[in-house]
Design a protein that fits this description.
Blueprint: H1 2-14, H2 24-30, E1 39-41, E2 47-50, H3 77-85, H4 91-97, H5 101-109, H6 125-136, H7 140-145
Helix pairs in contact: 2-6, 3-5, 4-6
């Protein structure tokens, strides 16, 4: 019986697409496609990526942030469903979302009428994973995971 259950579990898991970790440096170049609508601006007001576009929300700290929670931006109904559920963006989910936002919302909300205001789609899993890795470098979680600088030398341990 264990063998049957294990084989069934393997078949189920192997049918799912595997998430390939992206390359943040390559993602910085891919982000050039996103900067028409998005910007990455930190709490100090410094533009870290993009050209200060305001069509889409600021993506600073998007990984680890509740979907649709950036103050001052009017989100579409599909994202608002995620917001109400307390859905938190992960790097993996961003890589999926940017390839087909409406499909992502349909699957995550189980509402076939859930739409995204984001019409642009990144073509290709590699570009999507790379831009998601790039955006993850601006997350609070990434900053907390980075080793603290040695106060005496100014270097990381």
């Amino acid at each position: 019986m264990k063998l049957i259950v294990t084989a069934a579990a393997f078949a189920l898991v192997s049918g799912l697409p595997a998430f390939a970790a992206g390359d943040a440096e390559a993602g910085a170049k891919v982000f050039n496609k996103c900067q028409t609508c998005h910007v990455v601006v930190n709490e100090a007001g410094e533009t870290l990526a993009g050209k200060n576009a305001k069509t889409g929300p600021n993506l600073y700290g998007v990984v680890g942030r509740v979907a649709g929670s950036y103050e001052g931006f009017k989100y579409g109904a599909g994202i608002e469903l995620l917001t109400a559920a307390g859905y938190v963006w992960t790097e993996e989910d961003i890589a999926i979302y940017v390839q087909d936002p409406t499909k992502f919302l349909d699957e995550r909300t189980t509402d076939p009428k859930a739409k995204s205001k984001m019409a642009f789609k990144l073509k290709g899993e590699k570009d999507a994973a790379d831009v998601a890795a790039f955006l993850a470098t601006f997350s609070t979680a990434a900053a907390e995971a980075a080793p603290a600088a040695d106060a005496a030398t100014g270097t990381n341990p």
